[in-house]
Amino acid sequence: MSASRTERLLNLLIALLNTRYGLRRNELRETIYRDTPGNEASFGRMFERDKSDLRKFGFDVETLTDLGWSEDDPATTRYRIGRESNRLPDVQLGPEEWTVLLLASQLWERAALGTAAQSALRKLQASGAMADVQLPAGVQPRIKPAGQAFDDLVAAMHAKHPVTFTYLAGSTGTEEQRTVEPWGLGSRFGHWYFAGYDRVRKAPRHFRLSRFTSAVTILEREQFTPPRGFNIRQELDRLPELPLRTAVVDVRKERLLALRRRAVAQDLALEGAQGSGAAEPPESGYERISRGYLDPEVLAEELASYGQDALAVAPAELADAVRRRLRAAAEFSAAPVPTFRFASTPSRPVRARTSEDQLKRMLQLVPFLVHNQGLHIEDVANRFGISRKELEDDLQILICSGLPEGYPDDLLDIQWEDDHVYITQDLDLTKPVRFTVEEACALLTGLETLNGLPEVAEGGALESVTLKLLAAAGEEGLRAASLAGPEMAPADAATHATVRQAIESGSQLRLTYLAPQRDSVSERDVDPLRLYSLDNVWYFEAYCHSVEGLRNFRLDRVQDLHPNGRPVPAGTTPAEGVPAKLFTARDDDTIVTVQLTRQGRGLADDYYAERTAELDDGGLVAEIRFGNTAWLPMFVAQHGGSARILAPAELADTARTWLAASLARYGG
Fold first, then answer.
1. Parallel, antiparallel, or unpaired for β 507-515 and 520-534?
2. Residue 348: its pLDDT value, please?
3. Phi/psi at 4 (5° precision)
4. Average of pLDDT values for 9-34?
5. CA 359 to CA 235: how far, in whole Å?
6. How far is CA 494 from CA 489, 500, 552, in A?
7. Secondary structure tally for the chain: helices H, strands E
8. Residue of 484, 364, 469, 487 lying closest to 426 (CA atoms)
9. Contact criterion met (CB below 8 Å) for 591 and 623
């Protein structure tokens, strides 16, 4: 990343914003480009590239000529940018609107849209003071995108690039290579779908992300034009409901309580087995059960994680799906170990730094500092998701930038000697630039998703802030129709209401809970602290008196819940940070080295990896803390060739042996 290029673009932008008459090319070369080597032709090419870059940011670079002169004459052609060009309009929000907006900005669990939502929120904070709001205890929903494929499809969709991927066709059960122009991406029936024009079938098609069997490749050299007014939510609403089917599964006796809990009548199991031609009884030590399912791939993921404790008997496509997952996991676990090297410091997701990224950040940084004078430099860096060193590099460039041939008062004036950042000269950069497509989509899709929660939708704040953001986003806001989030309403409204009331009143709860990993049901007294969700799966964080520590409980695994009549002790608080973490690290956790493919690399974020090492194929190696390592073979099988254990060696050997034995049950 060239700091000189970033500085040049910023100086060019300031110069063109602060001229009424316009500046000629020779004036710009003598000031902005005076330290740039090369002849007139190379300067001309650089200037055209820089103008193009500013236009990509949405700044309208005007070309002016005197009456009777041609634009082809560089001696008479002048350039300028209007003061209000690409500026975000002022958006005034009240406390209730800020609360709803804060919820929407924190919806995205990870992925590029999470970064875009935070960027959009900073722009709004820079255009108007943010009210001092506190999130409600019982409403902290989040959206968990469907892995790396989600990020890749969003990027391709917004850049209007086609994509290719390998897809498991539901109609034929075979893998096929597809090339598709992505139009929209949304959640329906608990699954992520994307819609677009299939160049292979030469017709619009829908694709379920759970059926992708390869990484997504973006064809960056090609572009397409999406249909005008496309709305993914309306498109997915036309999809027929998935048919409820019956699976027959042989389950080891007295095991898999979670699977048995969802079993249906035994006569359906017998009928399903006979209909599939599997009339022979289960092996000794196993029982035959039946359960309903909608998507064979989702059930196959669960059954694969049970290994030898469960065998899919019917239908055949379900057994094939389990076998395919186990085989992929076994083959990946047996592959050669790649060469890798961890970074010397704990890693965090970082995009490659470019001049474009840095300039975008600076155009947010100046108005943010103007409206938030005196913040500690570490706080500013955290708000922008960068290190202190990166922030100081940005500030060093900013204080050297200003009007061409200007006096000291014509430069940006920023000081942070005492670790508190102040800006006294902003050169009229007090307004942030308009939302990008990603920023508009992240916030507006988040707001639309919150409509599914009555406690948020009531009162009018959600509707009013949505209308204000649509007006501020302009054309980019209309493209938010290409994204649709999942339904957020909890499946068990009564349990959700009980937990929320207990949090608000500070009451302890008596809990009967099913723990699938331990395959056991336990009773415990807990102090409920906060509710949150991933898509439509709701959890609550609580202090558990049985283990004397913070734990997270899934609401759909709660078998009984009621107040025990005791108050939550004073001083009991949730874990630090928003959003809540699903896993609480402990000193006796085992640090496990895991290799993830490009498809599965999102698991490093899901499990809060402490260190990562990038691999040449787009995957990565991650160090993750696990409190219970006995279930790691289940973890590997569940992700079907996207994850494997590298170290400790005994855990890797155990996983390979477990996978081989599980695959043998399916004749693999």
1. antiparallel
2. 45
3. -65, -35
4. 86
5. 37
6. 12, 10, 18
7. 22, 25
8. 364
9. yes
